[in-house]
Structures are given as structure tokens and as C-alpha cells.
Amino acid sequence: MTNVSHSGNASNTFEAFYEGWLVRQEHFLDELLSAQQTIDEARDEDLRDLVSRVLFHYQQYYDEKSRLGQRDVLLVFSPTWYTSYERSLLWIAGYKLAKIHESVAAPPFMDAVRRYGRAGHGQMVEDDAVIKSLKSALETVVENANLLRTTMATKLVDLLSSGQAVRFLTARS
Predict the structure, then answer these.
(1) How far apart, in whole angstroms, are the C-alpha atoms of residue 3 and residue 143?
(2) Among 50, 51, 65, 163, which residue has the fewest nearby CB atoms (within 10 Å)?
(3) Mind listing the GO molecular function terms for this protein (predicted)?
(4) Buried b (16+ CB within 10 A) or exposed e, 128-146
């Protein structure tokens, strides 16, 4: 029961953050669109400042998502704060929990099932260790994926001119 309420609290906390983040995202998109309209007249340092603020905004999202992963990693892989439409886009785009399950979850779960089948009901304590191990592996997947996304975006933006970076971030937003 504690796990359910803990998951609910983690989900509610992230959902509140995410709603505020989306509002700020809309403001940044407005700024990016405005900057894109006047990109030839804009000062390079102003464009770079905007790019830095937008990248920091995304960093906040991934930091919060990592904190959620530490509280309840399964919520990261099954986001309850997304609408049905957003979840369908994840599915259409090929993001399927089953693929993660095959590479990370399947071996520990199959081992647990085999041990449970052989040992009987007394094996449940060890199965908790397998589940903790699985959650730890999933947390690592989340952290590494977030790091990869932020590092790649930062390196790409560093390669681009300030105007190109504004166009890139506008398209991404």
C-alpha cells in the first residue's frame, strides 16, 4: 500500500512540475519564434543568451525526470501525466516498454521465475532483491538516456551559429 501512495505522490509531484514546465516551454517557443523573425537584426549575444536559457529549461526537465526515476523508475517508463494522444505518439514512434523489458528486465525476471518455481514459496525475499536490481538497472537507463540527450543537444548547439541554434531549438520545440 505504501508503494502505491508513494507512486501517486511521485506522479503528482512530477505532474505539477511538468504542467509548469509546459507553460514555460510555450513562453520559450514564443521567444524563439520572435527571435527567428528578427534573426538577421538580432545581436549574437542575445541569441546565445536565449539558446542558453532554452537549454537550461530542457536540463531542468531531465533533472526532474531523473529525480522521479530515483523515487519510482516505473513511472518514467509509463508516464501517467501524458494524455492518451501523447502516449499513442510514443507508441507510434517506436518507444515501447517491451523493448526495454527485453534487454533489461527479461533476464532478472526469468531467473526469479525459475528460482521461485524450484524453491517454492520461501523464495520471495530473494525475488525482492531481483526487483530492486531491475529498478536499479532501469534507473541507470533513465540517467544515461537523459545524459545522452542533454550532451548531444549541447554539443550540436555548440557547433551551430547562434541563428542556426535558434532555428534548431524552434523546430525542436
Answers:
(1) 22
(2) 163
(3) sequence-specific DNA binding
(4) eebeeebbebbbebbbeeb
Cell triple for 145: 538516456
With residue 106 as reference, give the H or E element that holds it.
helix 106-119
How many CB atoms lie under 10 A from the CB of residue 37? 10
C-alpha to C-alpha distance for 138 and 99, rounded to whole angstroms: 12
Q: For each of the chain's 173 residues, which pLDDT tens digit applies?
A: 444 455 668 788 999 999 999 999 999 999 999 999 999 999 999 999 999 999 999 999 999 999 998 898 888 877 888 888 887 777 776 665 555 555 655 565 556 555 554 555 555 545 677 777 778 888 888 888 889 989 999 999 999 999 999 999 999 87
DSSP 42: S
> Residue 54 in contact with residue 32, Cβ under 8 Å?
yes
* Phi/psi of residue 78, nearest 5 degrees: -140, 75
Phi, psi for residue 162 in degrees, rounded to 5:
-60, -40
How far, in Å, CA of 55 to CA of 22, rounded?
Answer: 14
93, three cell numbers: 514512434
- In this structure, what DSSP letter does residue 161 have? -
